What we know:
Elements: H1 12-43, H2 49-60, H3 72-115
Helix pairs in contact: 1-2, 1-3
Amino acid sequence: xxxxxxxxxxxxxxxxxxxxxxxxxxxxxxxxxxxxxxxxxxxxxxxxxxxxxxxxxxxxxxxxxxxxxxxxxxxxxxxxxxxxxxxxxxxxxxxxxxxxxxxxxxxxxxxxxxxxxx
Length: 118
C-alpha cells in the first residue's frame, strides 16, 4: 500500500490519488455506519425515519442522542451503537490521516538518509 522506506517518495499525483482512495473508504465506512444506525433506531427503537437519522448522525458525530428511548431494545441498541460510533470515528480519522502521516515520515526519512551520503 505504502512505499517502503528504501523506495523514493511517490509523486504528488500518486499521493493525491491515494488520499482520495482513503477518503472514499472512510466515507463508505461512515455512510454504512449511518445506515446501520438509522435502521437500528427505526426498527429497534421505533423512531420515525427522520428522527432515526438525526439520532444516528448525532451519535456518529460525537454529540449524543436527541430523542429519549422508551423500549429496552432501543436502549440496548443505542448503548452499543454509541460504543461502535466511537470506534468508527477513530478508524475514519486514522484512514484520513494515514497517507499524510506516512508521506511526512517518509519525506523526513529520505531527507535524513540523503543528507548523510556524499
